[in-house]
């Protein structure tokens, strides 16, 4: 039997291996800013360690600061991403040394921590869940930066299951009957209890919601379906776009998902520095909320609300149940550097038969990012609460780049509606016609 402490130690070391693998490249690539949307990779590298120092060593264990002068540099709120390259950041080697010094002290704290401690950070090992979740989120951010860098070589490939041949009787949409369901995660808990898993403040409290009946797509929208929208003149027709979305199209001149180009009759995409024909049967990726919203209107549908998305999962930790994600369930954890074809994970279906809800692409929803009724910020307002309001749209389900331990059916991600450097796609829904 592995103990909870052993499990946390193993997960910490796996997360760190991943961070170090994504930053195992030349100093130029690490220190350069590849896009004003993203930090230099070396910022993420040291920020992960500074966050761990702040939460595990100082707040949970009460240790004094190791390098107080670093806090300001790596506070995401003091300096916006576009300003980070001009800061006196630690160099790659110094950053690696700093985060490894923090990590060895983290293991000391883990050795002595009491999981029954009433303190909400120490109890149940909550703070270790926080830093694990955070490090894996930054690893995904680093992948988005590496994709933006257009450099070949840093990110490798892998293999995925092929699309299953779909049985003819399987409808492209799934009907979800109306009624009450419970949305969100239960009370704050540690890493130990499978029935009460680790969750962020924005996933709580669990609350009952009534939804009318609706239809939701069985799979995310594919590249092939999205190409039909483009070729039908979708980017030239204001009627499909929200007013802000149309303004964005006119201002930016976009005509296709990020990284796409057309050559004669073939659509190509750039993926980690290599050009390849766009595969028709994979979920579309690198689209903005505006594009997802316009496609849905063109298709005679709409985006699901996040409540509709979550209900379609069937009320468990994962769509397929409570078992940890395996290769048969979902494309998570960077098995390959791409989404899998639709239909590749019949065993990952929800009880309603909705597939690929988790993994492959983050799915844009129609919902703005807000606190659930009774929301209480924990442990810090700057993680979620300061983003609540009209500006951000919620994404659900995780992508191929999301670590399996960093996703669950209640997990909420958010971004601005113009953003598409993230691994974002979508599926459509529609209300039941009465
Ligand atoms: C949840 C992805 C929007 O990157 O801004 C990382 C995650 N917050 N460190 C972000 C996050 C603090 C956050 N997103
Ligand atoms: Fe962070």
Automatic annotation (TrEMBL):
The kind of enzyme this is, by top-level EC class, is oxidoreductase
According to UniProt, the name of this protein is Hercynine oxygenase
Required co-factor? Fe(2+)
The UniProt entry, under Pfam families, shows: DinB_2, FGE-sulfatase
Q: Which residues bind gamma-L-glutamyl-L-cysteine?
A: 81-84, 415, 419
Q: Which domain of life is it from?
A: Bacteria
Q: Where is the DinB-like domain?
A: 12-142
A molecular function (GO) term: iron ion binding
HAMAP family in the record: EgtB (MF_02035)
What are the entry keywords?
A: Iron, Metal-binding, Monooxygenase, Oxidoreductase
- State what this protein does: Catalyzes the oxidative sulfurization of hercynine (N-alpha,N-alpha,N-alpha-trimethyl-L-histidine) into hercynyl-gamma-L-glutamyl-L-cysteine sulfoxide, a step in the biosynthesis pathway of ergothioneine.
Name the protein family.
Answer: Belongs to the EgtB family.
Return the NCBIfam families for the record.
egtB_TIGR03440 (TIGR03440)
The record's listing under Gene3D superfamilies reads:
dinb family like domain, paralog of FGE (formylglycine-generating enzyme)
Pathway assignment: Amino-acid biosynthesis; ergothioneine biosynthesis
* Record EC number: 1.14.99.50
* Catalyzed reaction equations: gamma-L-glutamyl-L-cysteine + hercynine + O2 = gamma-L-glutamyl-hercynylcysteine S-oxide + H2O
Q: Where is the Sulfatase-modifying factor enzyme-like domain?
A: 173-430
List residues binding Fe cation: 47, 134, 138
């Amino acid at each position: 039997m592995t103990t909870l402490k052993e499990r946390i130690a193993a997960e910490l070391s796996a997360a760190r291996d991943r961070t170090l693998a994504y930053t195992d490249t030349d100093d130029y690539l690490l220190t350069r800013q590849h896009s004003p949307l993203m930090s230099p990779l070396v910022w993420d590298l040291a920020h992960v360690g500074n966050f761990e120092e702040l939460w595990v060593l100082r707040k949970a264990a009460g240790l004094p600061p190791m390098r107080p002068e670093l806090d300001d540099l790596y506070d995401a709120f003091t300096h916006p991403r576009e300003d980070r390259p001009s800061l006196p950041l630690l160099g790659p080697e110094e950053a690696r040394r700093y985060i490894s010094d923090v990590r060895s002290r983290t293991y000391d704290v883990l050795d002595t921590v009491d999981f029954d401690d009433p303190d909400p950070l120490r109890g149940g090992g909550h703070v270790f869940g926080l830093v694990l979740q955070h490090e894996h989120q930054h690893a995904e951010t680093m992948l988005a930066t590496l994709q933006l860098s257009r450099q070949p070589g840093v990110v490798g490939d892998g293999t995925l299951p092929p699309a299953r041949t779909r049985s003819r009787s399987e409808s492209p949409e799934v009907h979800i009957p109306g009624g009450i369901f419970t949305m969100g995660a239960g009370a704050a808990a540690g890493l130990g209890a499978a029935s009460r898993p680790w969750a962020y403040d924005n996933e709580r409290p669990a609350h009952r919601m009534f939804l009318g009946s609706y239809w939701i797509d069985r799979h995310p929208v594919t590249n092939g379906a999205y190409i039909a929208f483009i070729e039908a003149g979708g980017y030239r027709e204001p009627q499909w776009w929200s007013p802000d979305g149309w303004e964005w199209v006119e201002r930016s001149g976009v005509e296709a998902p990020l990284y796409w180009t057309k050559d004669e009759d073939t659509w190509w995409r750039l993926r980690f520095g290599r050009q390849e024909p766009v595969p028709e049967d994979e979920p579309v990726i690198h689209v903005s909320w505006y594009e997802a919203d316009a496609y849905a209107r063109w298709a005679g549908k709409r985006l699901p609300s996040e409540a509709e998305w979550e209900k379609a999962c069937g009320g468990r930790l994962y769509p397929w149940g409570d078992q940890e994600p395996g290769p048969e369930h979902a494309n998570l954890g960077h098995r390959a550097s791409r989404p899998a074809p639709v239909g590749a994970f019949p065993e990952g279906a929800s009880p309603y038969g909705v597939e690929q809800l988790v993994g492959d692409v983050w799915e844009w929803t129609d919902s703005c990012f807000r606190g659930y009724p009774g929301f209480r910020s924990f442990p810090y307002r700057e993680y979620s609460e300061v983003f609540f309001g009209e500006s951000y749209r919620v994404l659900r389900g995780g992508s191929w780049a999301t670590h399996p331990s960093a996703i669950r059916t209640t997990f909420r991600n958010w971004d601005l509606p113009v953003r598409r450097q993230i691994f974002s796609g979508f599926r459509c829904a529609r209300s039941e016609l009465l």
